[in-house]
């Protein structure tokens, strides 16, 4: 009887597994639902480095013209306005990880395929890494200095004009778990107002249900928001808005906690926590508009493909599996200012810290 099989590193198998690995890894991430190729995406996928050589993409922002213009028969010549542009650089680099079996005897003792489990383990690892890239970048987690966790680009701290601290505090380190300093709807209002009045304004994301911002909050901030019993609080969000996915097929609604003041809320446990002494921590939530971040791949890589390699070691006794990708992710920063993010720092209540075992 004739059978069809593919051995280690067969071309067909490598291509199949590289596609499957990337697709499944991205499917597991929070970040993937906010990615798209057009300028209306929260995280815009740039393709320049997929088409040719290079380790960076330089993006250009043209500022809006601000001149008053010339009325009537006034002379326009000599009163022209100069175009003002700013640039940002997105770097890409290679990141790889691998799994290696202990040998054929080790594989004999276990009831599963090392090859398959290696693929699933690497898939989970990449999903976690992509989400870490995304959250560390958009929140400006400069405390994380290892670029393997920040999208192969250094994470830059939020700019002063794009930062809100609960209860009028000036820095995160002074926030404590008092009722006035924990996360609340008023902070969402404040962030939305800042986004709409900054210069340039933070452009919301267009959906079939209207224009919206997206805000990521820590699980502890979600806990505090749900327990707030003041007038017009969590119950009012649910009555007046939506529960993830019911009003729109747009992926930015999928899994959402709710919507308030045009802001879609998502819980994100990878957002940074900042220790403020004792048992208290501060969470850094972040409101995002269109083009808040950029993502790019190198040649031969995409949202559908990464490197997949298998090698035999010790005279064919040990199987090694590696998965790699050339890519980069960063938040957009023009003229030393965050382009489409507003961070909101609020302390976690003692009850929230107790609930999560801290």
Please explain how this structure is put together.
This protein is an alpha+beta fold and 358 residues long. It has two domains: 11-59 and 85-149 and 294-330; 160-292 and 336-355, capsid protein of prophage fold, CATH 3.30.1930. Helices cover 24% and strands 27% of the residues. It is built from eight helices and 18 strands. Strands 6, 7, 8, 9, 10, 11, 12 and 18 form an eight-stranded mixed sheet that branches. Strand 7 and strand 8 form a beta hairpin. The longest helix is centred in the middle third of the chain and has 25 residues, at 114-138. Residues 1-6 have low confidence and may be disordered.
Short description:
The relative contact order is 0.22. This protein has eight helices and 18 strands.
Let me know the largest β-sheet. Answer: 8 strands, mixed
Count the helices. How many?
A: 8
What's the CATH architecture of the largest domain? 2-Layer Sandwich
CATH class of the largest domain: Alpha Beta
Overall 3D form? globular
Estimate the strand proportion: 25-35%
Annotated CATH topology of the largest domain: capsid protein of prophage fold
Q: Report the radius of gyration as a whole number of Å.
A: 24 Å
Q: Tell me the domain tally.
A: 2
List key phrases describing it.
18 strands, globular, disordered N terminus, 8 helices, 358 residues, 2 domains, eight-stranded mixed beta sheet, capsid protein of prophage fold
Task: Note the topology.
Elements: H1 11-27, E1 35-36, E2 43-46, H2 48-51, E3 56-62, E4 85-91, E5 93-100, H3 104-109, H4 114-138, E6 163-165, H5 185-197, E7 205-207, E8 210-217, H6 219-227, H7 234-240, E9 258-260, E10 263-267, E11 273-275, E12 281-288, E13 293-297, E14 307-313, E15 318-331, E16 333-334, E17 337-338, E18 341-347, H8 350-355
